[in-house]
């Protein structure tokens, strides 16, 4: 790795393309002047925007391609026409070739995941990728994974998720031993999915984990920030994430309606304007933008397709932190340090 | 059914017992003077409370038992010591014997479900029970099921859930053809769990359903009120429900902190007090208290263990509505009217 953090950016991804992605990159660059961008996309669209952003232009290298993955294509379609030549593929390929330290794209999730697996391949010891999300909590932030990369998970995948998520927590939250909980229904040992119970047993009985296994957590424990890392399979994780987003929108809408009800409430709103502004910032989903693809030979950040420039910058910031604090190396260490102990533990469980 | 709605009430259930349950019953009775209560519990604890509630006392028949199910017992333990004689069992038994039209308990969910199955048995054609929850939405309310009675669901169980949930929507929301969505990740036909996709195919292709099948919905569609009935298996459903509760608490806590920040925000709060009060009422989880056990030969309402008197009254109200608007008969009709068409459809799918 050079002294600079080299970020490969799919300039064509997302609902808005370069007109939003590039201003987002410019915001991130202001916060991290040690970033170098490799931009991939249609120069006919990129260059006019870039000309208005001289700072970004000076820190970027543009590679032209006129193939862009559409937001609603199936992964198989995207692979067919976009492999080798789309902006998404080239962005990932820069990581693969060691020219960039991290890839960021706001493109279609399924296609990005398919191309990531195809190009970067899985890490040794990991069979399936995961998407990790940052989740704002009453205590700060937690990491929740998997939020939709794959459906269903056996105990060994859940344990891999715990290892990868805690490596990410170590990087992002700067804590030596993150706490990890398994998402389940009911906290009693007898309840819930069998694979989750079995993963819990193994984690409880494994010595020398490099994180603290907390036990089961329920849906309402996520927002409380009971643990640093919440582990779940992708179906339930995706539903939890979207349900929380939906509930936040719903309550914000109730609040707006309530503040508009009477002259007194409108007056009250005026007085409390700064407080509402602070609340809005606290609830701002753009701040937590960026799902991290874990389990691959390379770091890939998925920015939200509808993200604006601020949201794009947050996704790039996250990629930056992952590189600066050596996420991949830490995941590798975790996997190496613990996998053998865990395999032994799984074998013990199977034999008993 | 007599002219009265006869409600069997487990007076010992929940975290607080008779001191909260009975005042709750009294509130419900005020709203529905045509209710008759069968109360089950320890008269040494019941009678002093009842003496202070003369209206309730006059409308109630008390049956003494000194066995009460503890909140943290496993279902098997509860069955062992509580069958035949606990207040929970006797409450259910009143429905079984036709002495009551509905059973309400705030006791331990697992024990209540186990005893309900054991005593009331499943409805013809239904193999597994479900818990349905009322979910406040931007448009009003929706029904979400299953929120935790069982884990996993094949396509035929998902279709049963759709039939039962839509019967409940017909009763509670007074709409002839409720809309039904299957909870999934990604709305594209190719995504998500295979059983969910298969259930979607069957519902799409089945003529003469007595509800309108909408298609897939995602977690954030629940709070928008996109459909009247959201169908999911119990693991994801429970996690969605608890995550939404957790998010609501989290945002309420952010809001309180924001309103306390400065003198201006506190002043603003004073002006907008009525609006905040309205908001609080809108978000009041007590109003949606009461999970409905579906699929049994009898209606059982599970009130939240921590519910206060107002919450208890809401659960009783729900039981009242279920009886007055003939939920069980409507579920029976739905099942009969549609099961044959659906079986034919499933067979077609299997043959093709």
UniProtKB/TrEMBL annotation, chains A, B:
It comes from the Bacteria. Keywords: Acyltransferase, Cytoplasm, Lipid biosynthesis, Lipid metabolism, Phospholipid biosynthesis, Phospholipid metabolism, Transferase. GO terms for biological process: fatty acid biosynthetic process; phospholipid biosynthetic process. Pathway: Lipid metabolism; phospholipid metabolism. It is found in: Cytoplasm. GO terms for molecular function: phosphate:acyl-[acyl carrier protein] acyltransferase activity. One of its GO terms (cellular component) is cytoplasm. InterPro entries: FA_synthesis (IPR003664), Phospholipid_synth_PlsX-like (IPR012281). It holds the Pfam family FA_synthesis. Its EC number is 2.3.1.274. It catalyses: a fatty acyl-[ACP] + phosphate = an acyl phosphate + holo-[ACP]. Homodimer. Probably interacts with PlsY. Belongs to the PlsX family. Catalyzes the reversible formation of acyl-phosphate (acyl-PO(4)) from acyl-[acyl-carrier-protein] (acyl-ACP). This enzyme utilizes acyl-ACP as fatty acyl donor, but not acyl-CoA. This is Phosphate acyltransferase. The gene is plsX.
